[in-house]
UniProtKB/TrEMBL annotation:
Domain 3-hydroxyacyl-CoA dehydrogenase C-terminal: 185-253
BP terms from Gene Ontology: fatty acid metabolic process
Claim: Oxidoreductase is one of the keywords in the record: yes
Residues of the 3-hydroxyacyl-CoA dehydrogenase NAD binding domain: 9-181
Swiss-Prot/TrEMBL keywords: Oxidoreductase
Record bears the keyword Oxidoreductase: yes
Identification of the protein by name: 3-hydroxyacyl-CoA dehydrogenase
Annotated site, Important for catalytic activity, chain positions: 138
Pfam families on file: 3HCDH (PF00725), 3HCDH_N (PF02737)
One MF annotation (Gene Ontology) recorded for this entry: oxidoreductase activity, acting on the CH-OH group of donors, NAD or NADP as acceptor
């Protein structure tokens, strides 16, 4: 595998929400980016969108020095790239086709990383000639702000490839967590789904409104989990006896709740949830809400990094 410290040029394939975020992340780190999307409108809008994100994020110099080339074919974008980040729509047939083309086009020491949120790499690897250099590199929206990337090896991924991908992501400012094996939803989306299941159940049972659930998370679990994870939080919650004491004292109640949790009916709850977020938004449009989120998130992350 190419030395992650020497990677200079990245190909970004698929320039929607996530591809655009990756371009900004790589450009902010001073790397050259070769970009492809079959939709010409997506390609044309990209340079200005990236400059805007970089300026808003305090990377004015990177915006001026932007090295971004747009290509009409996937093969041309990949040519000369040291690392490939694939972000095409989350559809089995499209992913299989694009991963196959990338596998044929790129030298075998170039890592091909897919951003897939929900597909398993293992189902694509058998059809590839060099599956050992493929890996999942799953980011979080917005990619240029969120620190974490989950690196997930498929059954045919070489450990050196997963390791090199993780080191490369760390080099561009991410925190990489390499999972021990693939699983549907990787790690974070499993955790997120578990919390949301109970959040929706609380609304369905009339315990709290959508806005109240969000308020509780933002003002308690969010701040706590931005500094310690759920295990460490309970270790500290156990006082001098740590996690063991915590479990002895509060474990039976938690186990009972786990056993009693039930799965809400998401389809039946959708209208209620949509009305709830609209009330919570209080007339602010999506663009306004997104900018508010990004502003607060950048301030929080800058504070935590400091
Ligand atoms: N949206 C998220 O929050 C999120 C988070 C993490 C990972 N992901 C993953 O990232 C990937 C992309 O998701 P998105 O939300 O950016 O989707 P999107 O629909 O915003 O963008 C997909 C882009 O791929 C382009 N495309 C279609 N066919 C293509 C092809 N054959 N070759 C190259 N490009 C092609 C489309 O024109 C579009 O611009 C998915 O695998 C998704 O699971 C999404």
């Amino acid at each position: 595998m190419r030395d992650p410290a020497m990677i200079e040029t990245v190909a970004v394939i698929g320039l929607g929400t996530i591809g655009t975020g990756w371009v900004a992340r790589f450009a902010a780190a001073g790397l050259a980016v070769r970009a492809f999307d079959p939709d010409a409108a997506q390609r044309e809008a990209l340079p200005e969108a990236i400059r805007q994100v970089l300026r808003d994020g305090g990377h004015g110099e990177a915006a001026e020095a932007l090295r971004l080339s747009l290509h009409d074919t996937l093969e041309e974008a990949v040519s000369g790239a040291d690392f490939i980040q694939e972000n095409v729509p989350e559809r089995q047939a499209i992913k299989a086709d694009v991963l196959g083309r990338l596998d044929r086009a790129a030298p075998v020491d170039v890592i091909i990383s897919t951003s897939t949120s929900g597909l398993m790499l293992g189902q694509f690897q058998e059809a590839l000639s060099a599956p050992e250099r493929t890996v999942v590199g799953h980011p979080f929206h917005p990619v240029y702000l969120m620190p974490l990337v989950e690196v997930v090896p498929g059954p045919r991924t070489a450990p050196e490839a997963a390791d090199a991908a993780a080191r490369f992501y760390e080099r561009v400012g991410h925190v990489a967590v390499t999972l021990q094996k693939e699983a549907p939803g990787h790690l974070v989306n499993r955790l997120q789904a578990a919390l949301w299941r109970e959040a929706v159940a609380c609304v369905e049972d009339g315990i709290a409104s959508v806005e109240q659930v969000d308020k509780a998370v933002v003002n308690c679990l969010g701040p706590r989990w931005s500094v310690v994870g759920p295990h460490m939080a309970f270790h500290l919650g156990g006082g001098k006896g740590g996690l063991r004491h915590f479990v002895e004292q509060l474990g039976p109640g938690i186990q009972k709740r786990w056993n009693e949790f039930r799965t809400p009916d998401l389809a039946a709850m959708t209208d209620t949830l949509v009305r709830g977020v609209e009330e919570e938004a209080g007339g602010r449009d999506l663009n306004t809400l997104q900018r508010e989120r990004d502003r607060k998130l950048s301030a929080l992350l800058a504070h935590l990094a400091g």
